[in-house]
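During the no-cost extension, the postdoctoral fellow (Dr. R.K.) reprocessed legacy sequence entries with the updated structure-token encoder. One reprocessed record is reproduced below for audit purposes.
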Amino acid sequence: MEFIGQLWLPILLSAVLVFIVSAIVHMVLPYHKTEWNAAPNQDALQAALKGCPPGMYGFPMAADPKDRMSPEWMKKWSEGPSGWLTVMPVGGWSMGKSLTLSFILNVVISFFTAYVAGHVLTMGAGAPPYLAVFRVTGAIGFMTYGLAAAYESIWYGRPWKSTAFTAFDALLFGLVMAGAFGWLWPR
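Re-encoded structure tokens follow.
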């Protein structure tokens, strides 16, 4: 854990910079505004879900996993509509809580980036040049922020356009992270 003593500044700075870039991406740039559509008959949908506890749901969904490949279930699935639904807790959404958790996640990602980079790259005398640190930490950042979203497209029907937006965001976040680590890498 000695890497923390040497890399605490790039860990925190990269987390802050990614947090700022994320805010700009989601509040200023227009491409994320096209990801979500309003559900048809929203009032009827909300009324139908009234009292549904928070959680993740599939529809149609058989209670027993063995029944999910039965002809009846497959017919329901193919006739549709079918999909996945996340129900949030009643009482509103907390922007402050979400921002705080996002920042904490950024710190955790930066911490693990430092952990891996600290084992791959030397620190102090003989440290690699800026570009070598940039490449390693940028690749780790891109993979961490972006690649897992593809599973949601593969398994849960998330539009590939949305996954591409996430990958682009991840590229930006990885570049910002790489810049902070490259700049502040102990030499």
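The mean pLDDT is 93. Strands lie at 55-59, 83-87. The remaining legacy entries will be reprocessed before the final report is submitted.
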